[in-house]
Design goal:
This protein is about 40% helix and about 10% strand. It has about 170 residues and is α+β, with helices and mostly antiparallel strands.
Length: about 170
């Protein structure tokens, strides 16, 4: 008798763990997206399920902060939320920045600088600010572009973003 295959159940469980409510499409900031199980369940259970789900087939969709917590790079989910909220406080008050809630599965949304899209420069894709687990500044900026997506610019945290906003907003 063959051993039962548990992979589909784990895949389904993880899919349900990151699933956002239908109202997520109208979110104006990352805090409004924190309704999934991964945002509310005890952090140790979230990390355990993430590791199990990822161990079966490789990387699974997950918020940037969860990947960072699971890798031991970020001390807590709460710190990840604070980072997202501080970016929202900074960009939400500046003209031209819009929050985009429909990011990849499990992700926390991102910010676009709308004047950089189809302005004088003619770019099809606006300057985009998103969170990342690829470096300890936790913020990447994709410059406005057309065609091939450029390499992200690693930004040194909120202070680095604040210091470089003039540069990023200059592309119109």
């Amino acid at each position: 008798m063959a051993a039962p295959r548990l992979e589909p159940m784990l895949d389904l469980e993880w899919s349900q763990a990151i699933e956002l409510p239908r109202t997520a499409a109208s979110a104006t900031g990352p805090g409004e997206l924190r309704r999934a199980w991964v945002h509310r369940a005890p952090e140790d259970r979230v990390v355990t399920l993430f590791r199990k789900a990822g161990g079966m087939h490789g990387p699974v969709p997950a918020p940037w902060w969860l990947r960072a917590v699971a890798d031991g790079k970020l001390e807590s989910r709460e710190l990840g939320f604070r980072i997202e909220d501080r970016i929202a406080q900074l960009l939400g008050r500046r003209p031209g920045w819009e929050f985009v809630p429909w990011a990849a599965d499990g992700e926390s949304g991102y910010w676009e600088f709308m004047p950089s899209e189809r302005g004088k420069s003619g770019h099809a894709t606006p300057t985009t600010v998103l969170n990342t687990d690829r470096h300890p500044g936790w913020i990447d900026v994709l410059p406005a572009h057309s065609g091939t997506t450029p390499e992200p610019i690693a930004v040194a945290g909120l202070a680095g973003l604040r210091a470089r906003l003039g540069e990023f907003e200059a592309v119109r």
